[in-house]
Design goal:
This protein has 507 residues and is an all-alpha fold. It is built from 20 helices and two strands. A two-stranded antiparallel sheet has the order 1-2. The longest helix is centred in the middle third of the chain and has 34 residues.
């Protein structure tokens, strides 16, 4: 991986070999590369849209793979003979490796070629995800290790891909593209349940469910190599130029901690991650146990187990993800001129509105399954209002040269305090409650029911965090725009459809 070259020549910058002059981002190689003038190549709107399509496809399979295990969780528990808390560790170790490595990839993403970072990470993801499907009954520890390594690949992609979109588009167009990109999170999650349960039912072996996404990922890797560019940072805001800010990682972190809307929105993202992580992992199992408690189906004693709830919950997740993402972005675009701080307010309303729906889901499941699904639909729809909007907040309150670091820190905090622990916490509470009668199928359902009550409470807390972000977001957005204007070179000549610039080295 080579550091990226600057678009300007040494003469343009008036460079002289002054030993006191700091090296760009502390990299000697980067300073040498910046001495060579680069011939720019424009990124056409068509090429930008193709790049976004590739990034959306990879985002889809990332989230399909992440929630495939949740779709076959009953089968997996029977195969390895493990309890709820142990099963939840599979998600916890994955998220922990993901969040621990996100800051590293954020640091690299603000300084080096982002396309190469994604290629390397996706390659690791493909190998480890495929390896997970080869684990035998006596090697549960190996499955946990491989799940942790899968997080390496996802950390590289999730921190970098949104910043590339941020440098390809701006304004209302960027909001729409970000909406499309983040809609693939719930779509991928829902398809993960469906494909996982479907492959397990079709083959009679849950491990075949883990072999679908690596095959799709190999296609994504080829598309990424040939079709995705690495635009200069800040190209969208500077009409094809580049924002060449110089700072250390410590300075980047200090800047982000002083950005109040970033801090409060990150806490809101954390609450959202906690809520969605726990629900995504446990809801199909909760619904299945509810139907056993209602005598609507027999208890599963041997795999493959009935996967009906995984199919339905997956379909609900896909539909609500699309509708909620589009509705959230539509409200943002419609109200932004009238209410400048509308984005965090939309996120707050979504989380606060979902809390009563989740309370109904938890308590009605023991009486009426169709009504439960209606409120699951409403709750997930309200949560899905946030996906694209809270990502857009980060892109416009943080300057381009620090966006990868901002994404990485938000991912780290969000997962560390959010979905890294929420599935395990719910499983541990469930195990503790069920000890009073561990052989009862009814009490197995009741214990999981009581443990899920933590989710709506965290949803209310997340709504408060986004309300706090709304107090500062307007001023922080203006401050970021001022910094971009100060650091960018003057734009010469009018252009109604400005082309984005890409150095030959970065293609």
């Amino acid at each position: 991986m080579e550091p990226e070259a600057s678009l300007s020549s040494p003469q343009d910058r008036g460079w002289t070999p002054d030993p006191s002059e700091g090296l760009h981002y502390g990299s000697f190689a980067n300073s040498l590369a910046s001495l060579t003038p680069q011939a720019p190549e424009s990124i056409s709107p068509r090429r930008a849209k193709i790049a976004v399509a590739v990034l959306c496809y990879i985002n889809l399979i990332n989230y399909m793979e992440r929630y495939t295990i949740a779709g076959v969780l009953f089968n997996l528990q029977k195969f390895f003979n493990i309890r709820d808390s142990t099963a939840a560790l599979l998600q916890t170790v994955f998220i922990c490796s993901f969040l621990l490595l996100a800051p590293l990839f954020g640091y690299l993403g603000d300084r080096y070629n982002r396309k190469y970072i994604m290629i390397g990470g996706l390659s690791v993801w493909l190998i480890t995800a495929a390896g997970s499907s080869l684990v035998t009954e006596s090697l549960f520890w190996l499955l946990m290790l491989l799940r942790a390594m899968v997080g390496i690949g996802e950390a590289s992609y999730s921190t970098v891909a949104p910043t590339i979109i941020g440098d390809l588009f701006t304004g209302a167009q960027r909001s729409v593209v970000i909406c499309v990109f983040y809609i693939f999170i719930p779509i991928g999650s829902g398809l993960g349940y469906i494909t996982g349960a479907g492959m397990a039912a079709l083959t009679g072996d849950w491990r075949w469910a883990l072999r679908v996404t690596p095959i799709m990922g190999a296609v994504g890797l080829v598309l990424l190599v040939f079709l995705c560019p690495n635009p200069p940072r800040g190209a969208a805001e500077t009409h094809g130029g580049v924002v060449a800010g110089q700072s250390s990682y410590k300075e980047d972190v200090k800047y982000l901690l002083r950005n109040k809307s970033y801090v409060w929105s990150t806490l809101g993202v954390t609450a959202t991650a906690f809520l969605t992580g726990a629900l995504a992992f446990w809801m199909p199992t909760f619904l299945s146990r509810a139907q056993v408690a209602l005598n609507l189906r027999p208890a599963c004693v041997k795999e493959p187990c009935d996967a009906t709830d995984s199919y339905i919950f997956g379909a609900v997740t896909v539909v609500t993800g699309i509708l909620g993402g589009c509705l959230g972005t539509g409200l943002s675009r419609w109200l932004r001129d009238k209410v400048p701080n509308v984005d965090p307010l939309i996120c707050a309303a979504g989380l606060l509105g979902s809390a009563p729906c989740l309370f109904v889901v938890i308590f009605v499941a023991s009486a009426n399954i169709p009504t439960t699904y209606v409120f699951i639909f409403l709750g997930e729809l309200l949560i899905s209002l946030n996906w694209a909007v809270m990502a857009d907040i980060l892109l416009y309150v943080v300057v381009p040269t620090r966006r990868s670091t901002a994404e990485a820190l938000q991912i780290s905090v969000g997962h560390l305090l959010g979905d890294a622990g929420s599935p395990y916490l719910v499983g541990a509470i469930s195990d503790a409650v069920s000890k009073s009668d561990p052989t009862s199928h009814i009490w197995s359902f009741q214990s999981l029911k009581y443990s899920l009550l933590v989710c709506p409470l965290v949803g209310v807390l997340g709504g408060v965090f986004f309300f706090m972000a709304a107090l500062y977001v307007t001023e922080d957005k203006k401050a970021a725009l001022r910094l971009v204007e100060e650091d960018s070179p003057p734009h010469q000549g009018p252009s109604h459809e400005p082309a984005l610039e890409l150095s030959v080295q970065e293609k």
